[in-house]
Amino acid sequence: MAVSRSSHGAVKRAGKAGGDFLGREFFQRDPLRCARELIGCELFWNGAAGVIVEVEAYAAVGDEAAHTFNRASAREFVAEHEPGAAYVYMNYGIHWLLNVLVKGECDGFVLIRALEPTRGVKEMERRRRASLSSAKALRAEALCSGPGKLAQALGVDGRDHGRDLCTGRGVGFRRLKAPSMEVVTDVRIGISKAAHLPWRFLAHGSGYVSVPHGRAGGQGGVVRKHKGQTR
Fold first, then answer.
1. CATH code of the domain in which 46 resides
2. What is the pTM of this model?
3. Residue 230 included in any domain
4. Residue 220's pLDDT is what?
5. What are residue 114's DSSP bridge partners?
């Protein structure tokens, strides 16, 4: 299938997904801005998809919670890969987590924490239920309400580490023509260092996030209303 690029760096690809996928230019900016503007975009992953409702930003320099602070392999990944590459790792030997590399005035990563499923929901549920002992059906809100659940539902694993998410082929982030979304900030989840930074971004009022705004023990606040996909 033919792939072309718009003047804003977005990959245009015809098909069932429709719309423009975010090109590399989108990720050639600092992690805070990229994280904030990914809220409301749709993540496509091999036939499944969901609207991003929660992310976290990590800075490659000076952020004690980032892998780059104490892992040479993470610093090498930043140096060797282009922005828009998938940074995938296993957390505590249990769950794969999906991040996207960003490189601008400040390099870093955006962790994709939660989605509101839109496509391939039955397959998402099949993958999630495969690891559960209960036969009860999963609520749609519970399919991707956390980075480990999300990766499991999409079928993300270590083979996706370094995958280019800017080609528009099979995986990528799509712009949506949707009303402006209110985004709020809060502290990041599950870390002990730099835990005070309000670098978690959420779609305000969404029932699909991992931890609702204001319940993570930090001081959050409304960022602003925006469409989330602007360049």
1. 3.10.300.10
2. 0.86
3. no
4. 52
5. 54, 145
